[in-house]
């Protein structure tokens, strides 16, 4: 908390904080399908086959449209170096990357752990999973709630300082929202995991924080 009193202008400046924690209702994950084969065409064909199996599985879980996007496609040669012969091409690796968003839209929704397990099953040895990112489908509502709490916190502090100085709060002179950076998530007991998945995925609670600095005139 930062408090400053300007005696010349008879004002008081306080900082209020508001935090709202909620369990994220969507998960983003990166899925990469790779295949290494002696010929470029064979590598692409293998990737296409595995990618089709993965995307068909995802659509079966309701992941489609903007929640399923191809974000990368590449191919490169694999080489080995031999004494007296130098570098030789031994094959080609093709890869494609998918960005998926799984929405937890109620008790009947498929859990992200189930979707991840299904992707691994469909892609087999050709699949690679990137990091998981937990987020909210409506972050603006949580920010607005945190902002309400930050204002209430600042107002309570300002009223206390006004009372201690035997004055009252007048008009608001300045308002500024303070960037505090990301707040680390808090783990909670609630987890979600598919019965057939060997790895549990913990969503935890993700806090949304707003800090505000407000200056009131003292009367």
UniProtKB/TrEMBL annotation:
Domain of life: Bacteria
Record-linked Gene3D superfamilies: Protein of unknown function (DUF541), domain 1 (3.30.110.170), Protein of unknown function (DUF541), domain 2 (3.30.70.2970)
Segments traversing the membrane: none
PANTHER family, per the entry: PERIPLASMIC IMMUNOGENIC PROTEIN, SLR1258 PROTEIN
Protein name stated in the entry: SIMPL domain-containing protein
Organism field: Rhodococcus jostii
